[in-house]
Design brief:
The protein is 35% helix and 18% strand. With 417 residues, the chain is α/β, with parallel strands linked by helices. The protein folds into two domains: 67-99 and 205-379, Rossmann fold; 123-192 and 387-413, Rossmann fold, CATH 3.40.50. Helix 7 (235-250) links the parallel strand 12 and strand 13 (259-265). The termini are far apart. The model has no long low-confidence stretch (mean pLDDT 95). It binds pyridoxal-5'-phosphate (PLP). Pyridoxal-5'-phosphate (PLP) binds next to helix 3, helix 7 and strand 15. Keywords: Coenzyme M biosynthesis, Pyridoxal phosphate, Transferase. GO terms for molecular function: cysteate synthase activity. Its cofactor is pyridoxal 5'-phosphate.
């Protein structure tokens, strides 16, 4: 029996396991695993959840995974009795070993493993506002897979690594925002010799992020009533919804579909705007607490996308101001004694808001996804180095594609391709 099939949730047709689109429409394809009850494996990192990852082997160096623990400090501050934190980052005292300090490693490792299983020789193209690029650079520096990163110029401070060998990574910056980096990456990925990692449409990325809910539920023993996360594309929200469906079918963790509480950073909050119908104006992404949360084209209305996830879970989206996010981040860091990235500060603020508005009760079971943290903690243990930028292009430059292809040829093939 096959370990899994990739199916369209709308038309029900089984598709090629590596397909990114349904032949019959725009739905996000979904993995269906033969094994209906998950058994944690004695493997490092997220591979512990290999039963529900669309891979057959593992990358052993990928030892990071989400770690769930019951909050005391932050919970007490908010008056909550069952707040569980799923921490994605570096915090060895809690056995958290994600060395890029964000949950994007949960996506990059299974995606890379699938490329290996497919004997993929082409150059993988990744567009990112920073944390995703760092996660893909990390795994590529381990496996040696050729990687072209396309990132907005103002995100380069996030492109650091703890690994020495970065010879398989070519980095290009775009003078523009994340959307312009995505648009450029799409053009390059469509050319011969390149492969796109697929973004929200890649089941390996989503099932990798789904391990947040798997870890939370296997640690606490039951599906939570509420799940909080800061979102840009909302892919993490879709992923935990899909994980919850599998856990419901598993049958051992209760009958409760967790309610999604997604949080966006105002005023640059396209998902919040789509969901509320409210028009927002502001200088985006400059005016944000964390610009990794700005995605101008999130997968909202496609079948199996963010809207379906919210509808099915009676979900809610919060609009969070910079001040609210800053205060919440500070409170979390002080009460839990670990540094976190700015993005999860937005999720912390949403949780505070939910308590204040009565969306949740003191005794409700809650999972708070800290999507990134421990960077300061990591710097105590490891030296980090910035990735070199090979080229900078402007989206207005009609020769930008040509320049990127020239750079790639020089970087990987010494100009000979
Ligand atoms: C730390 C962190 N949290 C949350 C998000 C939002 O994730 P998504 O765009 O999948 O919704 C990102 C995106 O890059 C991130 O880096």
């Amino acid at each position: 029996m096959r370990k899994y099939v990739v199916k369209c949730p709308k038309c029900g047709e089984v598709q090629d396991p590596y397909a990114l689109h349904c032949k019959n429409g725009d739905a996000l394809l979904r993995t269906e695993y033969s094994k209906k009850q998950i058994e944690p494996a004695d493997l490092p990192g997220i591979w512990r959840y290999i039963d529900w990852l669309p891979v057959n082997g593992i990358i052993e160096e990928g030892t990071g995974r989400p770690v769930t623990y019951k909050s005391e400090g932050f919970a007490k501050e908010l008056g909550l009795n069952d707040l569980n934190i799923t921490f994605n980052g570096y915090w060895p005292e809690k056995e958290a070993f994600i060395k890029t300090c964000s949950f994007k490693d949960l996506e990059s490792f299974p995606t890379m493993q699938r490329l290996i299983e497919r004997d993929e020789e082409r150059i993988m193209v990744v567009a990112s506002a920073g944390n995703t690029a760092r996660a893909f650079a990390h795994v590529a520096s381990i496996t040696g897979q050729k990687l072209l990163l396309i990132v907005p110029k103002n995100s380069i401070h996030r492109l650091w690594t703890t690994n020495d060998d970065t010879s398989s990574i070519c980095t290009v910056t775009v003078e523009g925002d994340y959307y312009q980096a995505i648009a450029m990456a799409e053009k390059i990925a469509a050319k011969e010799g390149f492969v796109s990692e697929g973004g929200a449409r890649n089941v390996a990325r989503r099932d990798g992020m789904a391990t947040v809910m798997l870890d939370a539920v296997l640690t606490t023993g039951s599906l939570p009533q509420h799940y909080f996360q800061a979102v840009g594309s909302g892919t993490g929200g879709i992923s935990v919804w899909e994980a919850s469906m599998r856990l419901l079918e598993d049958g051992r963790f209760g009958n409760n579909m967790p309610r999604l509480h997604l949080a966006q950073n105002l005023p640059c909050a396209p998902l919040y705007s789509l969901w509320t119908g409210m028009e927002l104006t502001g200088r985006c992404p400059e005016e944000m607490h964390d610009d990794v949360l700005y995605n101008r084209k999130p997968p909202y209305s496609a079948s199996g996308g963010v809207k379906d996830a919210l509808d099915d879970t009676n979900g809610i989206i919060y609009g969070i101001t910079n001040k609210e996010a800053e205060d919440a981040q500070k409170l979390f860091e002080e009460t839990e004694s670990i540094d976190i990235l700015p993005a999860p500060g937005v999720a912390c603020a949403a949780l505070i808001k939910a308590v204040e508005t009565g969306e949740i009760n003191d005794d409700d079971s809650i999972v708070l996804n800290i999507t990134g943290g421990g960077q300061k903690r990591l710097e105590e243990d490891f030296a980090t180095k910035q990735l070199d930028v090979g080229l900078s292009v402007s989206p207005e430059d009609p020769d930008s594609e040509k320049k990127i292809l020239g750079k790639v040829s020089e970087f990987f093939y010494k100009g000979g391709y």
